Amino acid sequence: MKAWRISMWRDGSKICNFLIILFLVLSIFILNRMKSQYCPSPYGKAEELLKLEKPRTGEKNQLTVERRQSSIQEDEDDEEENNANIVHEPICQELNKRSDTCDARGDVRIQSINHTIFINSTKKEWKIKPYARKGDDMGALSHVSEWSLKPFVQVPNCTLKQDIPAVIFSINGYTGNMFHDFTDVIIPLFITTHQFHGRVQLLVTDTKPWWANKYKLILNQLSTHEPIDLAKDDSETIRCFSRVITGLHFHKELGVDSSKSPTGYSIVDFKVLLRKACRLERAAAVLSSVRKPRLLIISRNHSRSFVNEKGIVGMAAGLGFDVVVGEAGVSTDVSKFARLVNSADVLMGVHGAGLTNMVFLPSGAVVIQIVPYGGLEWLARETFMKPSRELELKYLEYRIQEEESTLIDQYSREDPVLRDPERVHKKGWNAMKTVYLEKQNVRPRLDRLKNTLMEALKLLRAT
Ligand SMILES: *[C@@H]1O[C@H](CO)[C@@H](O)[C@H](O)[C@H]1NC(C)=O
Ligand SMILES: *[C@@H]1O[C@H](CO)[C@@H](O)[C@H](O)[C@H]1NC(C)=O
Ligand SMILES: *[C@@H]1O[C@H](CO)[C@@H](O)[C@H](O)[C@H]1NC(C)=O
Ligand SMILES: *[C@@H]1O[C@H](CO)[C@@H](O)[C@H](O)[C@H]1NC(C)=O
Fold first, then answer.
1. What is the pTM of this model?
2. Where does the record place the Glycosyltransferase 61 catalytic domain (predicted)?
């Protein structure tokens, strides 16, 4: 190795130098091309779909580091490091690759009009977008306002003072899609605020008035105070607290990591809270001789719908199920629908936000996720399979085969859409989403699906 190098340099050949440089430039170019081709951004513009990052083995660390550069900007200025009056605790922390939070204590003053939080116990300046989709700058975060945390310099006087902690969070990102409502906001809000037993002020930024209204019953369980819409503050308003948390703690999709939550609570505590909020009667799915097991089919209208819904209903009724078909839209009364879900023993639906309703199921109930055609198993796993286990539910999956997908009516059998879904995935999230999530409806074969439903009955009886 060494000899080779020495002799090469001894030649002193300019051609050699040129070749090395050319080689390096080419490698960088090729690596870049490979990166953009094989690691496309999973994020697109559409808001009404579940957004998830396809796990890429071996690349995780690098990705995390890249993402970390973005959200928190810390002022470099450290000249007054020795000033004894100033507490130098890190106000803002990078929790993980999905969320950052800032926890300011002392004399904390919020000036909503220009998204500024003044803190007496710091001399550093920080910036944060309080929505748990860190890194998704072009997507969710493009609608989320940035807040500045600043030291006391020409600080305005308080006009309102509250003697409880406050939590600032945005509800603008991808909300309106039930999966995102829960995984991006409601569960992170639970993780962040459950420790205060209701003695906390929720401060909402980037308001969608209907959103806070829709989830009012759940928010009321988290805080005994009405949420405040910061957008309604006028230029004079200065809200003062002794503690303000900006940005919510995120652990995992639809989940809580009890080893990381402030006082060790878990997703099971969240379920208890939901039962209270929505007045859900059943804690556990128990079969009885006086009541048929209930199957709730989550129906979708516009994409990924069941073409043969009637046939499915008939087949399931034949197996002894009390079958109910439900469709939850944006305007659905959450607690009413939650009570319907809670009355079910089996929840079945095609992969989509509606399956988020599983949070309302009694423990021991069965979730059947119908996975559309097209290599979507990873998406199914990350969004609903993993969370279902932690929610104390049983999980079955029914994978749509080529001949059960309406894609065969639209594409020739030789088309890569049917032959080689991986190739479509490599074109990026939007290409994948358009074909497999938006253009596809399903017609599961009744005899195959029957086996899955019988399996569900078996699981219920095993409880
Ligand atoms: C910040 O304000 C709090 C509450 O008024 C006070 O107890 C604390 O000493 C102040 N800290 C500094 C560094 O001024
Ligand atoms: C803030 O309050 C202090 C003392 O109450 C007062 O002296 C000062 O003028 C006030 N500042 C402003 C800008 O109103
Ligand atoms: C913040 O808002 C106030 C009131 O509108 C304004 O006087 C002030 O200049 C603003 N500060 C900054 C830094 O924009
Ligand atoms: C679903 O479609 C049916 C018939 O096409 C229609 O009557 C119904 O209003 C739709 N529901 C929603 C929520 O769009």
1. 0.82
2. 206-368
Measured distance CA(305)–CA(301) in Å, rounded: 6
Return the axis-axis angle of helices 267-278 and 334-342, rounded to nearest 10°. 110
**pLDDT score recorded for residue 363:** 97
DSSP tag of 181: I
Percent of the chain scored above 70 by pLDDT? 80
Q: Where are the alpha helices (DSSP H) in 358-445?
A: 377-380, 386-390, 407-410, 416-419, 421-425, 429-432
User: How is residue 388 written in tokens?
Assistant: 């279902």
- Measure Cα distances from 395 to 255, 304, 369, 454 in Å: 16, 20, 8, 13
* 348: Cα within 13 Å, side-chain hemisphere: 29
Please identify, by atom number, the ligand 3 atom nearest to the C-alpha of residue 156.
3
CB 217 within 8 A of CB 192: no
Ligand 3, residues at Cβ distance < 6 Å = 111, 113-114, 235
Contacts of 457 (CB under 8 A, 6+ apart): 293, 319, 320
Question: Averaging pLDDT over each range in 78-82, 94-98, 194-198, which range is the top one?
Answer: 194-198
φ, ψ at 185 (rounded to 5°): -125, -60
Q: What is the pLDDT of residue 462?
A: 87
Q: What is the pLDDT of residues 405-427, one digit of tens each?
A: 999 999 999 999 999 999 999 99
CA 116, 121, 124, 130 torsion: positive or negative? Answer: negative
399/137: higher pLDDT? 399
H-run or E-run covering 367:
strand 366-371
Q: Whose CA is nearest to atom 5 of ligand 4?
A: 301
Calpha distance 95→134 (Å, rounded): 10
Phi, psi of 42 (to 5 degrees): -80, -5
The CA-CA-CA angle for residues 142, 146, 150, to 5°, reads 165
Q: Which of 35-44, 327-336, 388-397 has the lowest mean pLDDT?
A: 35-44
Nearest to 148 by CA among 236, 71, 248, 229: 71
Q: Is the CB of 120 under 6 A from ligand 1?
A: yes
Q: d(Cα 368, Cα 347) in Å, to the nearest integer? A: 6
CA of 248 to the centre of ligand 3 (A): 26
Q: Looking at the CA of 125, which ligand is closest?
A: 3
% the chain with pLDDT above 90 = 72
Cα angle vertex 240, ends 262, 170, to 5°?
60
Look at the block and give the residue holding tokens 């550069």.
69
What number of other Cβ atoms are within 10 A of residue 413's Cβ? 10
| C-alpha–C-alpha distance, residues 457 and 365, integer Å | 10
